[in-house]
Amino acid sequence: MNDLAKYRPSPSWFAHNPYGIHGMGHAARVLVWADLIGRQLQSGGISLSLEAVRWVAVLHDVARLSDGWDSGHGARSADWVAKNRGALPFTLPDDLFERVLLCCRSHETSDRDIPVMTPELICIKDADGLDRVRINDLDPSFLRTKTALTLVDQAWNLYRATESADHPWEAVLQAAPSLA
């Protein structure tokens, strides 16, 4: 999990509260779960970009305007990522960057309304879904992968272990290896 530290977002990237329920702690937990799900999919022979998955995990909610219902935040986050491409601490080839934009844009969209459900998007949707424990709204029937279904208890444990941390990003990455 230590290699995930390099994906730390800057609090300044968040349009809303970087320490709210969609801020740094959420980004870290989604990163942990998306990385784990992505690695499991890869070990099962599914081709995907873990680098794209990891960056989407930390960027998917940067343009939220509130912690409540915020329709359109996925598209706004994708727009923010596109506008700030040169200032972000990573360089991806255009095809992978487009996957990041697609996943940011589509992560809040209903599966039935997504024309192409990429492996990267599946990772993000399941990882984001697992962290719905923080709002007591995780419905396992919406999870798409067997791996995510096995992580429900760990999602609760990781959230409980880190929910009130002063430094949520660091707390999540420190606690994750013992829980994931």
Can you describe what's shown?
This protein is 52% helix and 0% strand. Helix 1 crosses helix 5 (119-130). The model has no long low-confidence stretch (mean pLDDT 95). The chain has one domain (16-179): Hypothetical protein af1432. The N and C termini lie close together (10 Å). The chain is mostly helical and 180 residues long. The chain has eight helices and no strands. The radius of gyration is 15 Å and the shape is globular.
H/I helix tally? 8
Which oligomeric state applies? single chain
End-to-end Cα distance, whole Å, is 10 Å
Which ranges are low-confidence, i.e. pLDDT below 50, for 5 or more consecutive residues?
none
Q: How do the SSEs run, as a string of H and E?
A: HHHHHHHH
